[in-house]
């Protein structure tokens, strides 16, 4: 994020093209993208008014892979075609194929809430770039400015506080703002769709890939210290494998 656009540097062509892009998405894009991006733009507008005093212009929001393989989303001051500021959101989080979310229509609403929070996170980066012109590269873009804005929003939302990505100072024991707001939301907010990475580290059962639901249930009955989510994931993976066979 070395190039800082700055709202004052957005000319009429920038503003008009971004507005035209939003209009196209809302009216003429392919159905799946129109539906999901339409809802995401609605969230963007609401968040802009509530948390950013309406200071920003709607950016290019894309359902495409971020630059970093493990990132849920990213915010770049220049888009792939040279337009000013794009936000990319990982589409597998919506489709349910990402390992941090659960598949199936029953979890679709929760997956969208998760992605909407990714968008809110990236909106702080947009605000840093286009309103403040701040570069927190020394903190991998999650420094004091990001932390303070995240905590300001957290106070409105009634969720936990965070620190900078560097674990030091009086708030060193708080969660990092690099994973905000997912790491301070109550898990129930995502309606069971979110599978936090920390759960992978808990002691659980080792489920072979050829296990059946009956066999898994039998193993479960023999243990009282188990990871139910890991068990469910193994059963789901086996069902998917059998369908593909």
Q: How do the strands and helices of this protein lay out in sequence?
A:
Elements: H1 12-27, H2 31-51, E1 60-63, E2 73-78, E3 84-89, H3 92-95, H4 108-132, H5 144-157, H6 213-221, H7 228-244
Parallel strand pairs: 1-3
Antiparallel strand pairs: 2-3
Give keywords.
3-stranded mixed sheet, about 5% strand, globular, disordered N terminus
Task: Describe what this molecule looks like in 3D.
By secondary structure, the protein is mostly helical. It is built from seven helices and three strands; from the N terminus they run H-H-E-E-E-H-H-H-H-H. It has two domains: 7-190, no CATH class; 202-244, no CATH class. Helices cover 43% and strands 7% of the residues.
Briefly summarize what is shown.
Helix content is 43%, strand content 7%. With 245 residues, the protein is mainly alpha-helical.
Which H/E pattern describes the elements? Answer: HHEEEHHHHH
Total E-strand runs: 3
Distance between the termini: 45 Å
Mean pLDDT across residues: 86
The portion of residues forming beta strands comes to 5-15%
Helix share of residues?
Answer: 40-55%
Broad shape: globular
**Overall SS class:** mainly alpha
| Strand line-up of the largest beta sheet | 1-3-2
- For the record, the count of structural domains works out to 2
The stretches of 5 or more residues where confidence is low (pLDDT under 50) are 1-6, 199-211, 219-226
| Rg over CA atoms | 20 Å
Number of helices: 7
Main pleated sheet: 3 strands, mixed
């Amino acid at each position: 994020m070395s190039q800082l656009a700055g709202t004052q540097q957005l000319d009429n062509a920038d503003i008009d093209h971004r507005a035209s892009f939003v209009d196209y998405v809302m009216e003429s894009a392919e159905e799946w993208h129109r539906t999901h991006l339409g809802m995401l733009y609605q969230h963007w507008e609401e968040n802009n008014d509530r948390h950013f005093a309406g200071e920003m212009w709607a950016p290019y929001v894309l359902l495409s892979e971020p630059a970093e393989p493990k990132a849920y989303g990213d915010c770049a001051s220049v888009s792939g075609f040279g337009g000013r500021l794009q936000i990319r959101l990982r589409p597998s989080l919506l489709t349910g194929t990402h390992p941090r979310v659960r598949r199936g229509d029953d979890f679709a609403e929760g997956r969208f809430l998760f992605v909407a929070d990714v968008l809110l996170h990236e909106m702080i980066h947009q605000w840093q770039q286009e309103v403040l012109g701040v570069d927190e590269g020394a903190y991998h873009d999650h420094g004091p400015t990001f932390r303070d804005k995240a905590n300001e929003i957290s106070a409105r939302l009634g969720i936990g506080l965070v620190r900078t990505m560097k674990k030091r100072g009086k708030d060193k024991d708080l969660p990092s703002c690099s994973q905000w707001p997912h790491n301070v939301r109550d898990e129930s907010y995502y309606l069971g769709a979110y599978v936090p990475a920390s759960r992978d580290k808990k002691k659980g059962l080792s489920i072979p890939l050829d296990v059946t639901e009956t066999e898994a249930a039998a193993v479960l009955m023999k243990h009282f210290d188990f990871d139910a989510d890991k068990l469910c994931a193994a059963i789901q993976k086996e069902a998917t494998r059998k369908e593909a066979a």
